[in-house]
């Protein structure tokens, strides 16, 4: 049994946490360089402070966007300077109830069961439901295709005919990486008839959105995220140019996939436009919120209340799967039960990642407002611990006997006054 105060476990090796130096294949972050990120309002902890301390104000002024590897270097420094209690190479594999506590099985560098009162799932984009893979790929041999978040051997794509499905940021970044590795040809197969051009959410960025989204009525939350989903997020300008400046890159819009079959050592892809054989396919098809896809959540998944269960009504707008699957979270990102009493530990498990967006806005799972999200989370957990331990706090209140006054700081004149009055 491990007993500790606060600890973070990460399955990734130290310095490789998150997507940055593994499956994020862009050159720079999309977010502006001035983002506050995880700095918790402390200017000296920002990327800017870290950067200018090393390369100066002039270099900062010249910097356009943050190179992604440099962002990882900053996160490594951030962890070191705050001496954060993180154990790497440790994967959580199971969550179960243990009386008043939550038992989590961890494997890897440490193999044990850890008991905790509160559990935060800061498991990233792929950490709740995993990758989203279209049905037409489910039974195709993995030697012919990968999801964009997989570990892909790009050197092996040299001289090959490659297809990429999707038109988001990851589609462009993976396509560009394949082209730069020497792919003979690269086709972007894009279902939508037009590329989205406007990143709608950036148009209303303000502290109001950060602090107020979670307080909006359900109708407004749904309306906003439904609208944003319908408008779709464009791939970044630089990532798109990184693909299109290759002469052997081709964009096919309005090109839905009908079927994918293996044929003579290749993939035959039938689309709404034509049929063509490829050596390799990269599916840049995003992530999902479906908890049942992750073994470590098997015990809690059936009990988690989703927006489909509790909050969505048809009058709110389109029934989008990723929104219907989103967990219906409480004020401190805690899960709620589908059936009251069926899984009480859910109120102590906090979902601090992309899946929280519909309940809480974009304050987890993205960098810019993550400090606001973290503060909301920690305040909620702190308040809950106090309420749960109220008996103990009350006993401490009664037992506390440390005097601030010793009794010799003043002279009591009141007996004399009383005496005078009596006379
Ligand atoms: C390709 C790509 C590009 C992105 N670019 C941007 C960007 O430019 N700007 C932006 O704001 N956001 C971007 N994002 C979103 C980005 O993921 C987040 O902003 C950021 O990484 C969120 O940090 P996080 O700590 O919440 O999650 P992550 O950084 O994803 O970290 C989650 C960690 O959880 C660990 N983990 C998961 N499951 C388990 C388990 N069972 N046991 C133990 N450990 C586990 C993983 O190993 C991982 O290290 C991007 C995402 C992707 C996928």
TrEMBL record:
Q: Which UniProt keywords apply?
A: FAD, Flavoprotein, NADP, Oxidoreductase
Q: Which SUPFAM superfamilies match?
A: FAD/NAD(P)-binding domain (SSF51905)
Provide the family line. Belongs to the lysine N(6)-hydroxylase/L-ornithine N(5)-oxygenase family.
Protein name per its UniProtKB record: NAD(P)/FAD-dependent oxidoreductase
Q: Which cofactor does it need?
A: FAD
PANTHER family documented for this protein: FAD-DEPENDENT URATE HYDROXYLASE (PTHR43539:SF91), FLAVIN-BINDING MONOOXYGENASE-LIKE PROTEIN (AFU_ORTHOLOGUE AFUA_4G09220) (PTHR43539)
The lineage's top-level taxon is: Bacteria
- Give, as in the UniProt entry, the pathway in which the protein acts: Siderophore biosynthesis
Lineage, uppermost ranks: Bacteria, Pseudomonadati, Pseudomonadota, Betaproteobacteria, Neisseriales
Originating organism: Vitreoscilla massiliensis
Identify the Pfam families for this entry: Lys_Orn_oxgnase
